[in-house]
Amino acid sequence: MSYVTQTPVDPVVAAADPSVTSGLASAFRGKINTAYSDLMTRLKLIMAAVENIGTQVGAGAISGGAVTAGSGLSVSVATLKAFVGSVVEFNASQTVGGFTGSATNYLYLRQDGTWTINTTGTAPGTGDGHGLSLLWATVVCGASTVTSIGDTRRLYPFDAPSGVTYISKLQGNGAAMTFKRRAIALSDADTTLLASQYDATILEFTGALTADRFITMPTTDGAAFMVRNKTSGAHKLKFVTASYSQYISVDSNLAVWIYCDGADYQSGTPTSGLTISATPP
Fold first, then answer.
1. How confident is the model at residue 114 (pLDDT cuts 50, 70, 90)?
2. pTM of the prediction?
3. How many C-beta neighbours within 10 Å does residue 38 have?
4. Which residue of 12, 71, 88, 118 is most buried, as measured by CB atoms within 10 A?
């Protein structure tokens, strides 16, 4: 008896398949289709388990995926590998367009390998059929071009050299923080940071400013960050909580430690007694 060839579109064995004799057709088809159904059920259970693990560990970039400005209101994304509910991998660079001019855009990588863009910074839900999402970059646009790009990729915790274990998160007072340096591209306006932007220990702010700007940080008692003002225009960044009574002002090209006491941000960097020298003693 020759093998039954199943069609790629419908893996169920056809009733009139000539490779199966009429006397054995019903029994043969039934067993094959039952085995196939059982296999698919097991595969779905495995995928569900993988997605559940991914939900617990979180999505993240494994390698690649650098974002650079393209022509007009578009960007180029380099080859990448990431985990967003399942492994997403691009073996060629991609051009992503459709950004909104004169606005800060948020670029999300989706579980099905597509991209979602919005200007709210709210992570898209799974109800749109594209699965889970990972904030990949913030893209600040002028009227007709991309002016700056902030790298918001969270590194996947398992991406470590052999024999090395990374501590991926610190958890305290409900706020998770990873050991990494995050670049945050500012528009020329006061800004309230999203949770996806302050999940790193070091925050570097870029963008062209025409005035001093307030940066609203989380009101989490004990939250601590190294903040660096890399903006152009020689203006200050003023770090506050949502209901502040004071602020920490950071000059251009300066980096300082700040921490929250539950109400306001305080300076963790001494104003005197600190010497930075390029010459060894």
1. very high
2. 0.48
3. 10
4. 88
**Which phi and psi angles does 170 have, rounded to 5°?**
-105, 135
Tell whether 182 and 115 lie within a shared domain: no
| Rg, the chain, Cα only | 26
Contact indicator for 39, 11 with CB cutoff of 8 Å: no
SS3 18: coil
Give the pLDDT of residue 36.
Answer: 81
Domain limits for position 156: 59-160
Residues 176 and 262 in one domain: yes
Looking at the structure, tell me whether residues 182 and 149 fall in a common domain: no
pLDDT of 5 above 50? no
Residue 56: phi and psi, rounded to 5, are -70, -45
Pairing between β-strand 237-240 and β-strand 213-216 as defined by DSSP bridges:
parallel
Q: Using the structure block, give the residue that is written with the tokens 């306001």.
A: 264
> What average pLDDT does this structure show over 256-264?
91
pLDDT, greater one: 278 or 115 = 115
Asked if residue 104 lies in contact with residue 119, where contact means CB atoms within 8 angstroms, the answer is yes
Q: Which of 160, 188, 203 is the last residue of a domain?
A: 160
- CB-based contact 131:112 (threshold 8 Å): yes
Of the candidates 155, 209, 158, 212, the one whose C-alpha atom is nearest the C-alpha of residue 181 is: 155
